[in-house]
Amino acid sequence: MEPGRGGGDVPDGLVLQAPTGLLEPFSREVAQRDREVVVSPLTTLIVAAGEARRSVNRETPLLEAEQAGRSWLGFDAVHTRVGGREGAVDSAVLHTLLLDAFDGLADRVAAEVGIQPGTTFNPPDLLALLVDDAFGPTPAGVFDGLGIDGPVELDAARTYGFSAATLQSELRDALDLLVVPTGPWSRLEPRDVSGLRTRLGCSAASSSPCDEASVDETPPQLVTIEPDPEADPSWPASASSASPGTTARAP
Q1: pLDDT tens digits along 59-82
Q2: Which terminus, N or C, of the chain has the lesser number of Cβ atoms within 10 Å?
């Protein structure tokens, strides 16, 4: 499985999003007018959680979602570059590993309902269902398997019901398959992923999945990428086939 492998049609209405922070296009400070963000399935889930919280009038919905995301993952998915599989095991490498695991989770869900992985159910489809999960009204902004119209399910030969475990133990299991001796990430030692595995076991259904993390109080803006169904089917749509996340330069 190559990073960013997940092909397939992009579900109607699905866009990739990321909070960018407050930008000042005409500022003399380079850091304020020129900031790179990564736009990926992970950042899209963070934005979905924030926007769902906004719908129930939370005061700082995106800030809460960003803080929860950092606590859950152990790194900032918005500003941590997507790395390669080689070199020191830093946040960029773990970011790439986790995006590969997201692809693997889509394959696992497809297989569970009797769909051949990589055919009619792919990472974009998984993301669309998880976004629906985030917008479930009670409570809003959590990933607990309850969407806008009730339980979030994938129906085929069998039925898969989404739950809090989808982004917890099931995503962790998908990660574990990547680091086995025969897997594409076999170079990693158990100690390299122990912290990430522990954090994935925290409750992704909670507004603050793990311990509290520091948060930038700067009000966030949004950057959105609309996948082009006619373009290269790599995932995300704007990324090269060697990268599972798109780095976008905010205006």
Answers
A1: 677 888 888 888 889 999 988 988
A2: C
**What are the residues facing 158 on neighbouring strands?**
none
C-alpha triplet 116, 119, 123: angle, nearest 5°: 105
Query: Contact at 8 Å (CB) between 17 and 226?
Result: no
The closest alpha carbon to 16, from 25, 26, 31, 6, belongs to 6
> Which residues are CB-contacts of 68 (< 8 A; sequence separation ≥ 6)?
46, 49, 206, 207, 208, 209
Give the distance from CA 71 to its chain's centroid: 14
- Give me 76's structure tokens: 């900032």
Amino acid at 246: T
Structure-block tokens of residue 127: 């993301």
Output the pTM of the full model.
0.75
Cα-based distances in Å from 160 to 48, 106, 171, 176, 209 = 22, 12, 15, 21, 23
- Position 122, amino acid: N
Kindly state the tokens that stand for 49. 């959680």
C-alpha 124/C-alpha 9 separation (Å) is 8
Query: What size, in residues, is the chain?
Result: 251
Q: CA 202, 18, 160 angle in degrees (round to 5)?
A: 50
Long-range pairs of 144-153 with CB within 8 A, sequence gap ≥ 24: 144/205
